Amino acid sequence: MADTLSPNELWDKLNLKLYQDLGPLSFDAFVAPLKPIGIEDKRFLLAVPEEFADKIIDQWNQEISMKFVEFVSNETGTFIRPEFQRSAVTQTQLADGPQTSLTTPAPSEEHIPFSQDAGLNPDFTFEKFVIGSGNENARAIAQAVAEGPGKVYNPYLIYGGVGLGKTHLMQAIGNHYAKTNPNARIKYATAEDFLNDFTNSLRKGNETNATALFKKTYRSLDMLLVDDIQFWAGKPQVQEEFFNTFNALTKANKQIVMTSDRYPNDIPDLQDRLKSRFEQGITSDIQKPDVQTKVGILRNMQEKNELDIPNDVLQLIGESIDGNVRTLEGAFHSFEAKIRFQNKPATIETAKIILEEINANKKPVITVERIQEVVADYFMQTVDDMKSSRRQSDIVGARHVAIYLTRTMTDMSLPQIGKAFGNRDHSSISHAFTKIEEQIEKDTRMKEMVQSLAEEISDGQ
């Protein structure tokens, strides 16, 4: 996790991004000579050779520091600024010097116990989760699950778009349970983590007892938290293994919490028996935050980063950012960098500058290509499949939704839409539109899915 990266590990990640952004010549001149020392009080200490110090520090102040802050905030969710220490020692000595790990301080009585093995982020708590109209139901269920794991709402699945707080809410359940039950065996894993652990156990085989160890690790838990289960679409072997893990845990009244970017029945090639198991519990969705919720999130970030920002500035940023929480956080960190690094005042005028820079008020041009890409990605198909003559139900479903959105979000005529979807005639396009329109009227979940896709297309995320 980003919260537990050492300075060297974080520096390695930043090096790649800086290399891509600056190019090889500037990178070799202004980044490569630096060595990480440690992280203290939101300062990333970097050793710079004395012979190059003036030139490097000047270039960083002019161009690179802002990029650094942006990259670090994206990686860790924290504002950390670079600070240079001139040094005459060799690069080898610098590389072997002392380090301060980028971790949360040792927990006091007020802090939540943090287990690296559990994979929990101590910042993801109920107290730090801002409640709004789009997430209050999911939040209430999560609290009930945390207070009575394995007894109510098991399994619990939270679904919704990217960057809306699903992972935060799921890990808040784990953190609450860890606080009240310090000896509980809790594990957070992405669906990809679970897949990798499983395939590694198969690869190592019985010689190292890896398969048995994998099963013991996952099936002896008190609480299992799995992120992004849609990742298992079309992967029957890992679905089979999770089915067995699921049965073992729920039979022992152990809690399972999952997240997905869509409702389970909308995940293509997900086994019916898994869908059936998921329906035994409860699902809830998270919608995009309203303005009031976004302003609340910004206030939390302001307090965390020890800033004093007027309410009207926070209100403007909240009203102007129409994307998800991650987009909102990115705008906040851009504003923070302005007032910290460029000594800009925390005013409406400064907020307007950063909003203009990130094009917050400029809606992307909605094209049929954009619609096709978003819908194909959601349904885990390809644009070529949607344009083809293939009639598999999952492809047809994706095609119909894309046609409906194209008809409602662009000015294209039926013949033009038909041409964009594999030269179909206008009657086929009209049929697809009418079918989705009727489904939206009858099926609340279909209506929510289409609305979510339309928002993603409009946001340009």
Under CATH, the topology of the largest domain is which?
Answer: Rossmann fold
Which architecture name of the largest domain does CATH use? Answer: 3-Layer(aba) Sandwich
Order of helices and strands: HHEEHEHHEHEHHEHEHEHHHHHHHHHH
Average pLDDT, all residues: 82
Whole-number total of structural domains: 4
Helix content: 40-55%
Number of strands: 8
The main sheet comes to: 5 strands, parallel
Q: Which residues form runs of ≥5 with pLDDT under 50?
A: 89-116
Which CATH C-level class of the largest domain is it? Alpha Beta
Principal-axes shape call: globular
Radius of gyration: 25 Å
- Main sheet: strand order: 5-6-7-4-8
- CATH-wise, what's the superfamily of the largest domain? P-loop containing nucleotide triphosphate hydrolases
Distance between the termini: 23 Å
User: What is the structural class?
Assistant: alpha/beta
Q: Which secondary structure elements does this structure contain, and how are they paired or packed?
A:
Layout: H1 7-22, H2 24-30, E1 35-40, E2 43-49, H3 53-76, E3 81-87, H4 91-95, H5 136-147, E4 156-160, H6 166-180, E5 186-190, H7 191-204, H8 210-219, E6 223-227, H9 236-251, E7 255-260, H10 272-278, E8 282-286, H11 291-304, H12 311-320, H13 325-341, H14 348-357, H15 368-378, H16 383-387, H17 393-409, H18 414-420, H19 426-442, H20 444-459
Parallel strand pairs: 2-3, 4-7, 4-8, 5-6, 6-7
Antiparallel strand pairs: 1-2
